[in-house]
Structure formats: C-alpha cells, structure tokens
Fold these 3 entries.
Entry 1:
Amino acid sequence: MRSSSRSNAGLVVGDFAARAAAPADAVSADAVSAEPGEGGASRLQRLLGVPELAWLVERIRGRLERAEPVDGTVTLVGATNEQRRAAARLLGRGVGRGTSLSIPLPEVDAALRDAGAAAGLHAAVEALTGPVRNLAAERANEVLHWEAALATARSSRLASLPWYAAWVDEIGKDGTVIRLIRQRQGSLLEQAPAILERLPGGLEPVGILREELAETVTGDAHALDPGPLASLVLRALARREDVRAPASDDTELALWTAAGVVADDLASQVLVLNVRAGGEPLGRWLTEAAEAGEPYRVTLHQLTAMPVLPWAIDLYVCESRAVLRAAAGRLGASSAPLVCTEGEPSVACRRLLHAAVATGTRVHWHSGFTWPGLRATAVAMRRLRAEPWLMGEGDYRAGLAAGGSGSLRGPESPSPWDTRVAELMRRSGRAVSEEQLLPELLAALSA
C-alpha cells in the first residue's frame, strides 16, 4: 500500500516536471477539444475570438473583402507571449519562439472545422465580426453613383460657364462626391446646382433671403445653415468670384453677399447721400433727404417692398463712411449723389446700384488702394459696368505722397483698368485709404 502511494507520487512529480520543462507555447491536442456542453459559437469564441487573435481575424477579413484567396501564411512581427499562446491553442501545436509569429491559414481553417467551431474561415469571420463586405462590388456601385451624380451636375444650365465647370471638376476629383455618396447624402449633388441656378447674376435684381431659397429648393428652410450643402454652394461661389474657398464666417458671409443672398433683409443696409429717386414712399423719402443734404440709410427690406428708380445721371460710390460724412458736412445738398459701401458692398447696396444702372445711370467707383479694394472695383466694372473713379496710377502715387499709408494684407488682386496700379502696389507693399485722397474725392463730388 505504502509502495503504491510512493509510486503514484513519483508519477505526479515526474508529470509536473515534464510540463514545466515543455515550451511555453506547446499545447496538447486535448487543448482544442470541445468542452462538455460547449456549442460551436462558444468554441469559436474561445479559439479564434480572443483579443490576442484579433489581428489574425482582421487579416483574414481583409483578404475576404478583397476577394483574395485565404490560403498561404500570415505573419505578425513582434508577437507577444499571449498572442503566441493563443495561436498555439488554436492550432493545437507549438508555434516557435522567433520574433515573428507565422500562422498557416489552411491549418486555421482545418482546426475550426475539426473542433466544430465553424464551417470555414468565411463563416468564422462573419460570426465574429459581422457580414463580410464585397469591396469590389461596393467600389463598382460607387463609381456608377459618382458618374450619375456628375452627369446630373453637368446637365445644369450653368454647365457652359467656366467657373461652374471648374467646380464640378474639382468636387469630382477631390473625393467630395464619393464621400457624400458614402454618407448617403448624394441628393446634395442635385440640390447644390439647383441653388446655384436660382442665384442672381450680372444685372439681375439681387436680394434673396437664404431661408426662402433653401425652402424653395429643398423643402427645408435650414438646409443652407452651416453644413455640407452650404459648403458645396460656397465652394462654387468662390470659383465664381475667383477667390479662395471660405475659411471663416466672415469670408462665408462675403460670398453669400456677393451672390445676393442674405440671412436678414433688415440687417442688410446701404448708406447714401443726395440720391433722388422715384417710387412711393421710399423714393420720396430719399428725395427729401437729398434736398436737405442729409445722409440716409436704406434697408434691403425697404428696397424689396418699395422699389425705387434713382434719377441720377452720374452716381458716385465710395468705400469709407468718412468720405460720405465729409461730403455731407462740407458740401451738403450740393454734393454729387454718393453711395457708401462701408467695406464689402451689402446686398442692399448692390440692389440699389442695380436699380440705378437699369435706368441708365453711370456708376463711378472708388475703393481704397488695397487688394480687396482692387477686387471690389473689378467686380463693379464687370457687374455694373462701373467706371473706376480716381483709381489710376497717379492717384495711388498721390495717396502715397500724402503719407500715413499702411501695409498691404491678403491675397493680391489685379487692376484690369490700369495694370500699373497693382504692379506699383506690389512693389511698394503699401495700402492707401480713401481718407488719404479725401481732398481729391471731395473736389470731384463738388464739381
């Protein structure tokens, strides 16, 4: 009896010593056998669904999604001991001790089938991570939608315009169209051209409420709030205005304004002096203010609800309130009719000027000698047939001589009415404000 105990104890000690001497990643065949009452899903999770083998599942999934053969060997460089032990449990054998862990995929497939865990690698991956995508089919479908979206955009009545064609080409090449399709927002690629088609241009009347525009085209009054549709439209408008894509709220507002779109027709205003006009009652109010030589501020709401016809044969435009204030103070009712843009022309300002041009008025335009000022003058020439007023090379030199000039800022702009102006500004690097030319401006207004 005592001898038998001693013998059993020796076997136990010997077995423990043998296990202790075995490699860390060695696993007996019993390790992969099914546990009592364990189902296939549980066996699959225990064998292949452990976190240590997530990399292996991902590699197999990648091959399946790309329609590549799931054979050969996959290798993980710098595998941890835990990852090695998990691989050994899966395969039912040791996997070596090198710095790389290599696993033959046919062995994984066989191990899962033998253990009753899955009917193969495809079934195993779908059970663990969900349906396997067919990337080739998805890509082909995306290409079809991409082509259809661009075809729709190119069927717009604006398609012959260079800026519109450049915008469509840009969003087709930079991934914008594909991204919207993947986000299930492909309808925006139809709505954006519809928005652009409704925007005024040239000598057409301006002044559209953004909410009304959005409601008319999309059925949602807030569709042009900051978001993907507004971004698409603004990128197109940047092309139309030949400026950079907007990068701030101010530049976005400037583009909407240039397009004749406003968020609030009461906030959009224009400041005038001595602009007589027909049309009741707003035309009468303007005329009464002109007879008194008093500045008058008009809202877009008023211009829309009470259209006017300015009577001036020659209408002068300045950028700074200081010029209009000086004209009112020194010249009063004898000053030539003057409109002040107060920087970037508002939609109300543009609407009034469009109304004046429609009656045969000649617009004389002056801006500060800055890059935005040159750009505004060029736009006024194109859209209003405006004539540059004291905007030549000699005028710029006179402003420099007056002193007090600042540094030029922002992207450069050309001066198509006198190319020497932009070149001289580029060389000097100095900006000339309207205040530096105030005596010359007032002299022209008094004449």
Note: Confidence is low (pLDDT under 50) at residues 1-34.
Entry 2:
Amino acid sequence: MRIMVNVIDNIAQITPEWLTELLAEKENLSQGKVIWAQKRSYTTFKSTIVHLDLEYSVDVPKSIPTKMLLKITRPEYREQGKHESDFYNIIAPTMNSSYLVHCYAATYSFVSDRSYILLDDISRTHFQPESSLPITRLYAEQIVNCLAHLHAYWWEHPMLTKDFDSSPSLESIKRFVPSIESMFPEFSDFLGDRLSPTRRALYEKVFTCWPPPSLLKRLLERTATTLTHGDAYEGNFLYPNKVAQDNIYIIDWQDWHINIGTNDLASIFAKNWYPERRVLMEKELIRSYYIALMEYGVKQYSWDQCWHDYRTSAIFNLFWPIFIWTIGAPASIWWPILEKAMLAYQDLECEELLAG
C-alpha cells in the first residue's frame, strides 16, 4: 500500500495524480488512474467544498463514481477537522448506516494541522434546503427517524466507554460552563439594551445551575447516553428528491460527541423553529422519535424521561448564541437562535427543571 505524504490545503493541489494516489492508498482504486478532474468550489464558514467531476483510464472499475466531493477544513478549525476525520475513520466504519454518505478517505495531519474528507457527491439525487425556509413535515419526520436510528445504534454502546476526545469527563463538563460564562459579559455588553434584564438574569441562573445533577451523573456513567451529531440543524441533512426511493443523509460530523440524544432534536426544533411551527409539531415529532427508539431496540427509557430530556436540551440551546457570536459569525445567524431558544425555554417551562 502506498503512503500519502502530503495533506493538501488548497484547490490547486487537487490533481489527477493526487486523487489517484489517494484512492489507491485507501484501496478504492485497485487498478487504473484518474486522468482528468474538473473542480467547482465554494467556501462555508469552516471549510472549502470542492465538487469533482472525474474521468478515469479505461481499466478503472465501473463501480468507481465519477462525481465526488472534497471537503477541506480551514486551518483555524483544525480541531473540528481532526474530529470529523476521526468520525469517518473510527466511528463510521462500525455503523454500516444508510444515513451516512460514503467516505472514500478522511485524513488529518498532525504535522501540518490540515485535514480533508473525500465523499460521494450525491447532489444529483439529494438537496440542501433554502436556509431561510423551514423544511416540510415529511422531511422533519425523516430527520426524526434518522436520528432515532443512529442514537439507538449507539445507545450505551460499549465502544463509547473508550476515551475519545469527545468522551465526557468531570473536568470537561465542569470546564464547559465557565468557558461560556467567561464570554457572557462581553456578549452582554455588546447587546446592551437588546438583552433585557430578565434575560440577563436567566443566563446567570443557567450558569449557576448547569448541568443538572441528574444529567451530570448520566454523562459520567454513560447511562442512557449515545453518540450525538452535536450540530444538528436542517442544513446538515441532505434531502432526497424522490422521497419514496432514497434516504435522508446526515452530514458535517465535526462536532460529534457523547451526550443525551435529545440534544440533536432540540438543536433542530427548539433552537431553529419559530414558536407557531414548533408548538404545532414539536411534541408529536419527539413522540415519534421515542417510538422509533423503542422499535430500534432501546430499553429502560420512558416517554416521560425522553420528554424531560428534550426540555433539558432546550436549556442547553441558550449557550449557542454566545458561542457562535464569539467565533465571529454574523448576527443574522446567532440573533434568531437567541430569540427562538428563549421562546422555547418559556414554552417548554424549562424554569422548573432548573428549580429542581
């Protein structure tokens, strides 16, 4: 097997020779070579995405796709890049999940702090939604079933007792809240009177009470916990053009970690939906998630606990606007999240969970 020596950091380095070596190293290309690669790229907040149209020599197996997607993580997000590479190299191979886009290579270099992943390009059969519009109920139901399938597979999985970078420890859990709390004064000063005294007081209470003792115990003991996506929202799913024929896919695994599964659901619904739509469908969707968990084999987890967990996860959403603001994201991203998370906190009566 050949050894890759270069981890690329720009589009110009994506050559037919480099792709041939990469595919051969990962044993995807047993013979032949890439002879031409057309590249179309765009940038996201954390990455450069390159769509590749490939041509091969005549001896390449017909099973090798002619369309792939290369994701190059920006250097300032090197930790997330390593984390996603770990997911595709360590976690994904054990799952055999139809909800994951096939990965041909995932590499992180400790020397250069660079990373990339090479995936199937399924843009001909799937799409990402327009960011300003909510998804339809049908697609929301697909998301719920997808997450239930993934969470059930990893529910108290023995592999999660290993010491991954994302494994919760007492130190990491207790370090999280102070790190967010230390950002809050500057965030609060920036907002000025746009953050009311009532909401400032709420943040102070959450800082004091988080995490709830019962949640802390579960995280440390890995009880009723699972592998979570960590940044689940509508844009991190690929939706089938033909619902009856294709699955939904979940992408962007840069923030996966071990936690309660409802964090992913609250991230989608309680953090990103406006009240009318959320109240109309929220509880029914969480109920569907719970039923699917049971069908996929989860035991000793009651509906009451699931709903309690979802409300607890809605409290956690309050931390997101502060974090997103500190990394320089525009207000068009974090301000709506702040409003929606606060309104969900009220609607779900989360105050009583802190009181307990």
Note: The chain has two domains: 11-120, 129-355.
Entry 3:
Amino acid sequence: MLCQRFYIIGFSLLILLVTTTYAQEKPLKDLSRGQEGKIFFSSTNNPTFKSILTGGSPGEHVTIFGTLSMPKNTSAKVPAVIILPGVSGATDHYFEVASALNDIGFAAFVVDSHKPRNIQGASQAFKNLAQSMRVADAYAALKLLSTHPGIYKDRIALMGWGRGGSVALFASSEKIRRSLSRGDLRFAATIVYYPCCLRQVRNIDFTGAPILMLLAEKDNVTLASICIDYAQRANASGAGVKFVVYKDAYCAFDFSSLSGQVIPYPALSDFTKCKHKYLQLQDDGTWFCPYTEKRADNLADFGDLTADCKVEGGGIIGGPEEARTESIGEYQAFLKRIFNLP
C-alpha cells in the first residue's frame, strides 16, 4: 500500500512537472529562421464547433507542439504534410510516416495535441480532447508552416488517422476554414485513414482541395460503408473525393508494428450496428441526430447515443501486409500527382 501511495504521488508530480514544462515553453509565432525539430506553438481549446462557426469564445490559449522534419539533401522549397495522429496520440507509427514522406521530398509536421494537454491514452482522449480543439490545432499548424522559408505555403496537405482522420475531414470544410484561417490560406489536399464518418458535416462543403480516403473492408470501429456513402454524396455535390477499400483489412491495418497481424483491441468499440445512428454537424455548429431528432451544442451530450448498438468484445485491428504497403503507395502517388512531383 505504501509503495502504491508513493507511485501515485510520484506519477502526479510527473504530470505536474510535464504541465509546468510545456506552460513555460515560449510558443513560436513564425518559422522565418527555418526551424526544424520539436516546435512549440500556440493554439486554442475551442470547446465546441459552435464556438468555431459562430465566432464565439475560442477558449483558453494553449501551447502545444509538433515535430518538423525536412527532406535531406535539398535546398529548394518543398511541399509539406501536417500529420494528425489517431486517438492514442503521437506514437512511433506517425514518425515512421514522417520519415517516409521526407524520403519522397516532403516536409512532415507531426502535431501532438495530446501530451501538451496531459491526455494519456485513448480513454482520456475520448473524454477530454474535443475534435474542435484538434481542428484548431490543425489550422494553427498550417498558419505556422506557411511562414517557413523552405516550405511552399500553398502546398501543405493534411493527413489523419481514425479520430485524427475525422478531424482532417472537418478541417476540409469551407465553413470551418473561413472561421479559422485568414485570407486564402487552406490545405492543398487531405488524406485520411479509416476516419469516423459517423460524425459528418450536414451540408457537404469541402474547400475543393482533393481528398483521399483509405478504408478497411472489415473495420468494425470506423465503418467503411458509412465513409463510402459520405464520399459518394460529397462527389455528387461537386467535391473531389477518392476512396480505396482494402480487402480483409481492419482499423490500423497500416501500422508496421502489427506486421500483418489481426488482433482484438478492447480499448476501441465495435460500432458495426451503429451505422444508422450518425451525427450531423449543422451550419451553426450544433449537432443533430436524425435517429433521435435531438439537437445539442456539444458531442458529450450525445454520449449515450451508441450505447445500445455497440457490440460486446471491442474493436479489431490489423490486416494483411499487402494492404499496408499498397495504401502507402496509394497516398504517395496521390501526393506526387497533386503536387506534380516525379
């Protein structure tokens, strides 16, 4: 018991130390000196999408950070990709992606929205890290990278996984862009791995930049069928959304650490029976649930919406190695084509 008490006290002090350390870091307003590596910058804790779309209080300012890596052996300007990790935060996987992007001539900026806010793991992120906060982080990162002398400010793409993929889709909304970005600054392209399309913008108003969805056929956490429907409706409205579905793949099939494995992952929920219980983000930033015909200002108010359709046993992750390698080739070809690179 005494050891446990010391452990709890020690862990609490560690969290306090981490909080104090980040709070004392001075956020950079620009990257005019061509900085690389770990970079602290300012964002806002936007509590809801309503606060974004109606010009309400953006919440308190917060210092977050990202890690910027540049391609080697080049002095020319390069395009860039802002990386939004999934619900578990900035794990090694995303730095592997950054390195691979560097190898094909892109700068890569892995944004950590979790650690600066003391979010530890997926369960805390679901409860305490609103997607509206991460959308604000994405645009703060875009504004920052646009000042780097080695990066084309009009050739910055956004890439997200799972919950980060959902954030990337929200950030691709023209209404949201106008609320968070001055002038014509926008993401030049968006790539998403298995986003949660159960939450969607009602009026599909993408900025016009091309979007690539990489989906998993057997995903029981972020359902491919709903994203396909979403993409098809978006294309019918004039958007440019391409989707690719990988056979026998589940959520996180592109993680090299799984090496072609398929394993249960109880930390995620099985939502295969929830496909009719989606939520729509309205033009005024409120949420509407067609299933219950209820409205709310905050997603937290719909916390019990999917309680009766979750399947016992949790999520499944992984998939064939060929799906992983094919998806990498797909998004690299997409980026090269968009930015006219060899």
Note: DSSP finds nine helices and 14 strands in the chain.
